[in-house]
Amino acid sequence: ACGDGTTGGAGNPNGVLNIGMPNGPQTENHNPFLPSSSSNSLGYRWALYEPLVMTNQVKPDEEGKPWLATEWTWSDNFRELDLTIRDNATWSDGKPVTAQDIAYTFTLLKNTPALNINAIPYAEAVAEDDKVTVTFTSSQFVNQMDILTQTPMVPEHIWSKITDPATDTVKNPVGSGPYTLKTFTPQTVTLTVRDSGYWQDLPQVKELRYTSYNDNNAQTTALANGSSEWAFTFISNYKAVYVDKDPEHHKLWFPPVLGVHGLFLNTELKPFDDPVLRRAMNMVINRNDVFMQGEAGYFYPEVKNVTGIPTPAGESFLADEFKGEEFEVDVDGARKLLTDSGYTYSGDTLLDKTGKPVQLTLSNPAGWSDYITTLEILKDNFSDLGIAATVDKANQDTWTSDVDTGQFEAAMHWTNNGATPYDLYQSIMDGALYKPVGTAGVNGNWGRFRNADATEALHQYANAADDTVRQEAMDELQRIYVEQAPVLITGAANAGGEYSTKNWVGWPDEDNQYAPAQPTQPNALDIILRLKPAS
Amino acid sequence: MGYLLRRVGFYVFTAWAAITINFFLPRLIPGDPVQSLIARSQGRLDTSAIESLYILFGLDTDKGIVEQYGDYLGQLFRGDLGLSFTFFPTPVSEVLADSLPWTLGLVGITTVISFLLGTFMGVLAGWWRGSWADMLMPVTTFLSSIPYFWLGLIAITLLADRGGAFPSSGGYDPGVVPSWDMDFVWSAVHHSLLPAITILISSMSGWVLSMRNMMLTVSSEDYITVAHAKGLSERRVMVGYAARNALLPNVSGFALSLGLIVGGTLLVEIVFSYPGVGFQLFQAVGAKDYPLVQGIFLIITLSVLVANLFADLVYLLLDPRTRKEG
Amino acid sequence: MVTTEPVLEIRDLNVNYGLGDDAVHAVRDVSLTLNRGEVLGLAGESGSGKSTLAYGMLRLLPPPGVITGGQVLYHPRDSEPIDLMTLSTAKLRRFRWSEIAIVFQGAMNSLNPVHTIAAQLCDVIAAHEPRTSRAAQRSRAKDLLELVGINADRLGSYPHQLSGGMRQRVMIAMALALEPRVVVMDEPTTALDVVMQRQILAQLVELRERVGFSVLFITHDLSLLVEFSDRIAIMYGGRIVESAPAAELYRESLHPYSDGLLHSFPALRGPRRELTGIPGSPPDLRAMPSGCAFHPRCPRAFEPCADESPVLAAPPGSDERPGERTVACWLHAVERVKS
Amino acid sequence: MALPTADVMPVTAPVKRRRRSRLLANRKATIGLVIFGFFCLLAVLGPVLAPYDPGERGDQLLVGPTADHWFGTTHLGQDLFSQMLDGSRSVMLVGLVAGVVATVLGVLVGVTSGYLSGLGSEGLSALSNVFLVIPALPLILIITLSLPETDDMTIALVIGCTSWAWGARVLRAQTLSLRRRDYVEAARATGESTWRIIGFEILPNLTAVIAASFIGTVIFAVLSEITLAFIGVPGVSEWNWGAILFWAQSQQALAQGAWWWFVPPGIAIALLGTGLALLNFGIDEYVNPRLRSSTKVRGVRMRVGFTPVLRGSGHGHD
Amino acid sequence: MTASTEPAAPGTTDVVLEAVGLTKHFPIRRRLRTLFAAQRAVHAVEQVDLALRKGRVTAMVGESGSGKSTVARLMAQLVRQTDGQVLLHGEPVRTGGRRFRAYCRRVQMVFQDPFASLNPIHTVRYHLTRALRIHRSETSAEELLTRVALTPPERFLSKFPHELSGGQRQRVAIARALAAGPEALLADEPVSMLDVSIRLGVLNLLRDLRDRLDLAILYITHDIASARYFADEVLVLYAGQVVEGGSGEAVTQRAAHPYTRLLIASAPDPDRIAGTEAEVTDAGGGEPPSLIEPPAGCRFHPRCPHAMARCELEAPPRLPVESNGDGPHWAACWLYDANTVEAG
Ligand SMILES: Nc1ncnc2c1ncn2[C@@H]1O[C@H](COP(=O)(O)OP(=O)(O)OP(=O)(O)O)[C@@H](O)[C@H]1O
Ligand SMILES: Nc1ncnc2c1ncn2[C@@H]1O[C@H](COP(=O)(O)OP(=O)(O)OP(=O)(O)O)[C@@H](O)[C@H]1O
Ligand SMILES: [Mg+2]
Ligand SMILES: [Mg+2]
């Protein structure tokens, strides 16, 4: 909004791209492995460091693009990875990227558990010529993507001199990416394009400016007035507040990825241990209302399929029997389902099989406004079924520990996401993650769902040697989900972003789904490389 | 002398109390930084990250609370506030170094301006009682009853959003590099105007009211009548006699209510997304970042204490009765 | 020294507290003349309006005091009399202290606690003689302090560092700073003990001899006045009820109230006097008795007293010096009418 | 933030008879009392009067004031007027409870430390100064977040327990000046017990000061509570005005132009605050008559130092 | 008569209340500079002996700050003495909790300021009935008011202090003191805050009570003339010490101690003929001494026109002064030491 020539939409003439994140002031920390670093928080680590492979999360079944690795093969039941490293890449200090560096990176993660964020069980990484062989102690089928596309590669000659890589803020980042660090301030990080030595054509964006806005509102304002050209933030009324400010250029695209948000019912509590009741409850949830009102009609995309697998990302994983099975609200059907299996009504109140009224407390931290809004909608939906729900706006910390220890009735929660629906289902119904109520430390399955078949199927999926077994396991999981409704899914996780086509074009969108539009994903690098000045 | 001794004792005691509260309170907060980091990411961080985070933050070792307290005190003496979790592994002191100047600049300066301006207006309102100055009172009362944050939000809507003259958030324009050049200074000043005005409007009224009351009280003292009888000029009586004496209680009031004021003004930072300690504190509380919470709380308390010490010294200068007996 | 040349004439002064119907008439139709060089004592019990009169004539009354009538004429050395009631603020400011200075009862409260004695002394000089240099002001302040018997090294002291007696002396010094012709003293020694009181009064008497100013001395201690003043006026219920030369008043008071006052304090020496005191309690200004305000307490009240208030006038048989002796009492008025 | 005004005022001898009428005769106090009474009434009746269930979703999403929804609706179609009415109870309840708790603590600490002497007294006084100096809002924030369970009551308690210090300080100063009064000594000389002296001789003389400190704390408590709710600290009742503002803020209501979501709570808070502040001024002026504002009667401006001369009006004659 | 210079012998029936070697030091708060120095104190009252007798008024005069009120408070046991004893009928008084009430019943105090000694929020009735109830007295409030000449009592009972005049308030305060039925009444400047015209009424009331109730009264004042008028015995206090004592007439008419002489010379006296100013100046000037570090020897010596070398070294004991038949008379002044007298 101010007349400063260096900001606003004037990026194009100077080749600047303004990227924003609503993450508050940053401290200088370019360590690509630390989730708390500014490079991670704002996403610029991917402009400095590169992964081995670039995959498109929006279409996880597509083959990845070679990046630092030109070839990768999994063998031996996904316990061994053979990589061929590109020979024309250099670090920004001019030294070539070698297979030794790649092996070093994996060894570093193996030796520094604090940095091994995805807890990958590395066994060994050995380099030989341009080949690297990485071995694991268990099958990594479900972690393929984490290893190949989410691991930034670092130069050995720099990192081997760092005494404690877990607590080093890497003030002078040296990576293989097309950009180098120019300046850092708590509010803005500026990267400039390398002069030479990048293994592919240098991007047309000469300078990346990452600005950290203090909150969603500030970020939204920046987007609306054009000072941010690319961001990832929640805008409650995006049409009026953002798009309408410049309908021609202000765009957003929020494709779903393979993760979901849903209402976790504590399945250890009566009567919610009854799949019939859960199914009935699932039937009355108005996912569209949640999407339109709770998620402003774009943020967490609606999950249409009955299996809870977000489409189109998960299209290829759907079992034949569920292909095209769209979820629909069916209050009467739900009521019938209940009365058929022993539930009764006293007036408008649903009574369970023992004759007790069905009641439910929905809880989520007070500050999470989209979840709370969703709960309000669910509460309304459940009342159609005769279930009296109350919304409890909890203290975030209490809530976190209550969910962790299973001391809740129902809460909105998210699942992990991954390259396959495995992560999603694992978070929902993996019996291996089960811990009894009162015990903390569950990494998923917060609803304490126990179903031996599901656990078995998940195990099989992760460790199967061939694809048919895997497909069977996946079909089985979908069947169990539909029958048991362990979690009432409300929406999909996203990997989207808001962007402006005023100065730069070539963004991914509905028609050109080459990457998720989120500026903090590895794919951001791919996007930046494809941007062209608007004519 | 006795006065000073008591003040010094008081400062030490307060500092200790703050440090102790500071240590124990955050530890009573349920949950831990890892859980809350995961929770805040709402799915963008994989659950498998938990283990590595525990290791990273050094939360995998157990220590008794008393031992921790001892360590904490020891650390403090070495000037070490620990490492922040949210910005791991940045030391808290570094986070503070980034944010404190903003707060001092905004809250500190405006609080002082507010006090000075409010006091000045209070002097006028008290002295010219029964004239136009009385109009000030209802307005002031109303303004002082509005919460800071609401005023700030309205100010943003009216003056910042939709092409208004002021930026609505941040401490300076994105893209400007902090340094002592015109661009930056102008940008920083520009960004601080709206929050500063908000603070001024809502905190000044308190000073206007209390100074006016003190002026009225002092006006009926004999020495004011004597000053009039002496034929001194109006200004001399008002400034040198009435205001000078009325100021004393106001200065000590200022010192002691700094805590209240600062607490309230921090909210302005949140509303204006100003990169100061208030904003950081709020974030850190949410993130269970004890070292940061402790550090910020401690620094705010100490700043208030230092301001207090300063106000005390001013008081000492202003009131000859507290000086060393002659 | 004492002449009959008036310096200050109060004519029919009326002072109210408050406005409208619930106003309190604290001073009613008071006329009083202060002659050059004399000490005029003003006595009366608490609440009789002494201070109100003193402040009122200088227009120093705090709100809600208002002056509702009368004149206060000041006779400058060689020009027309000035009516203080009609002076503009600026003129009044210039007039104050240079012509009439005032010493209040509580010296602690009269001195500004945050400025040094020197500052406050210089203040007044600077305000009226702006061209005086700093150094001159200071040396003047030093002289003044020495005048009242305080060592000049006390100049830098703050009021709280001085004892009560010293503070009162500082006030007196300050009052004399501009060599005014009139000094009003409102109970200047009541807060002090007798030893100090006498020291200060002795000094005052001596200063008057040297400097030559008139004093309006207000107190409720009649015995003190008899000893120190030339003339005494007695106030009751907002009016002057009697005025006479001090010795005469002591010897033979005409008004029963003055008489009662004189018989309220025991004598220190000589035979034990009979003490009668005054029965009853002082009047409430809000509900003044009709007629003579003193009549409900007066042992010698008779018919006219309750109905009409007596006028202040010379009693019969005192014609030789007009204005020297006046009384407002039907006892004496009736006689005058008769004679 | 209304600061308690004058620091230490001499307690003038209260005039019992005229006391009530005088406080009421004060226009400020009356207006303040009316506003305060109005909000108290709302607190009692508000939830009953609310035309809708404040949490109920409606069809009209985010519409401005209409005949159906006087204050408009939220993004879920909830009726804001009902939310305001419903929220008034929590605001007033927390404010008053916190006020009572803080006042009781303030009286206990202030009067005890004022009446007793020695180390205990000094300690208590130091304690209250510590509480004054430590920034209040961050402290309250940290404490509320430390508590495992919070509801309106706990929040009221937290605010009450942290905001007594100012009252204690003022009361201590007053008690110190009262303690030396002859009538306290006289009561002692008569043989009254200590608690009776505190309870019957000193406390009644502090009524006005206590009332002022109570009202001051209520203002502070209301503001703090609303602030907490606005920041999103849980436990504050659902439709507390601060919570309404929280929702408005998290839905970026202002950016969306939904001013009706923001304005009513703000105005209500300011109005309540103003009412309380006025009431406090009334008390201040009652305790210290010098503060009475109106010195301008019938065109006469009274000034210290220059007494007005009125000619021809009410003369001293009877 | 030397007998009276000693404290009255124990068992003397008419001595009601007696102070023996009463001393009070108020400690001063330590300052930084003096943190490690010895604790300093205001020596407010030092070695005061006095006896209150049944049906007699003992006056105590002295300038401001000489410790008069402190003596009264000590005698009333509102303040604990640093040293010395208060004897009630020869019994040392110990006042802890319960026993304090019993002591109150017998020794009552009237304060200087009638405007401050009544609680503004309580009625006259409350003040009196509380006192009566505490001491389980049979008397009624009406009776008390009648006794202090506030008649008709009904008119005053339900009044608040602000509705009464100063004299009336002081009477109520006296009535309250009488409610306990005391034997000794300590009146700390009971009339100095009152209007001249009504002082006399209160003094006369006290005198009347002395006669009717046989009260032992300690009358504290700074007005030596009223002491002469009202008291049977006068003690002069200077800087916390009694410097002279004797019958009212003896002390006021033939003051022996130089300080008493100064006091008398300073008192306003309409009968004084102009020209006797010399007498005053002769009596000395200066200011009262610091009580924190009081002068050694006789505390008056720095101001005394007759000071001798001895005065600076030794504090004088009570020395008899020749009396002209108006009762015992003594002074604590070396001028009356046999040796000095001889030498003079
Ligand atoms: N502000 C006021 N409002 C109303 N009445 C007042 C005010 N100030 C003084 N009075 C009344 O005016 C009368 C005269 O007061 P003033 O102070 O002049 O008496 P005084 O003779 O000086 O008494 P004292 O000897 O006690 O000083 C008193 O009855 C008093 O009650
Ligand atoms: N509580 C106290 N703490 C310290 N010093 C005290 C205290 N009370 C009295 N003093 C000191 O003791 C000395 C005697 O005081 P006291 O009040 O007995 O004098 P007084 O003769 O009654 O004076 P006055 O005529 O002014 O009433 C004074 O110097 C006073 O400052
Ligand atoms: Mg007076
Ligand atoms: Mg005394």
TrEMBL record, chain B:
Entry-linked Gene3D superfamilies: MetI-like (1.10.3720.10)
Protein name in UniProt: ABC transporter permease
Pfam families, sorted: BPD_transp_1
Topology in the lipid bilayer: Multi-pass membrane protein
Transmembrane regions: 7-25, 102-127, 139-160, 188-209, 254-275, 295-318
Superkingdom in the source lineage: Bacteria
InterPro entries per the UniProt record, alphabetical: MetI-like (IPR000515), MetI-like_sf (IPR035906)
Record family assignment: Belongs to the binding-protein-dependent transport system permease family.
Subcellular localization: Cell membrane; Membrane
Domain (ABC transmembrane type-1): residue spans on this chain: 100-311
Membrane keyword on record: yes
CDD domains reported for this sequence: TM_PBP2
Primary localization class, coarse: membrane
Record keywords: Membrane, Transmembrane, Transmembrane helix, Transport
From TrEMBL, chain C:
Keywords: ATP-binding, Cell membrane, Membrane, Nucleotide-binding, Transport
The keyword Cell membrane is assigned to this record: yes
A GO MF term: ATP binding
InterPro entries in alphabetical order: AAA+_ATPase, ABC_Ni/Peptide_Import, ABC_transporter-like_ATP-bd, ABC_transporter-like_CS, Oligopep_ABC_C, P-loop_NTPase
Entry-linked Gene3D superfamilies: P-loop containing nucleotide triphosphate hydrolases (3.40.50.300)
Limits of the ABC transporter domain: 10-262
Domain of life: Bacteria
Key word Nucleotide-binding present: yes
Membrane protein topology class: Peripheral membrane protein
Transmembrane segments: none
Places the protein is found: Cell membrane
Similarity field: Belongs to the ABC transporter superfamily.
Protein's UniProt name: ABC transporter ATP-binding protein
Annotated source species: Actinophytocola glycyrrhizae
Phylogenetic lineage: Bacteria, Bacillati, Actinomycetota, Actinomycetes, Pseudonocardiales
UniProtKB/TrEMBL annotation, chain D:
Transport listed as a keyword: yes
Residues spanning the membrane: 29-50, 91-112, 124-147, 153-171, 206-231, 259-283
Boundaries of every ABC transmembrane type-1 domain copy: 92-280
Keyword Transferase: no
Keywords carried by this UniProt record: Cell membrane, Membrane, Transmembrane, Transmembrane helix, Transport
Cellular localization per UniProt: Cell membrane
Principal location listed in the UniProt entry: membrane
Membrane topology summary: Multi-pass membrane protein
PANTHER family on file: D,D-DIPEPTIDE TRANSPORT SYSTEM PERMEASE PROTEIN DDPC-RELATED, OLIGOPEPTIDE TRANSPORT SYSTEM PERMEASE PROTEIN APPC
Family designation: Belongs to the binding-protein-dependent transport system permease family.
Protein name: ABC transporter permease
From TrEMBL, chain E:
UniProt keywords, alphabetically: ATP-binding, Nucleotide-binding, Transport
UniProt key word Iron: no
InterPro entries in UniProt: AAA+_ATPase, ABC_transp_ATP-bind, ABC_transporter-like_ATP-bd, ABC_transporter-like_CS, Oligopep_ABC_C, P-loop_NTPase
A Pfam family annotated for this UniProt entry: oligo_HPY
Keyword Transport assigned: yes
Top-level taxonomic group: Bacteria
Gene Ontology MF: a single term: ATP binding
Protein name: ABC transporter ATP-binding protein
Organism the protein comes from: Actinophytocola glycyrrhizae
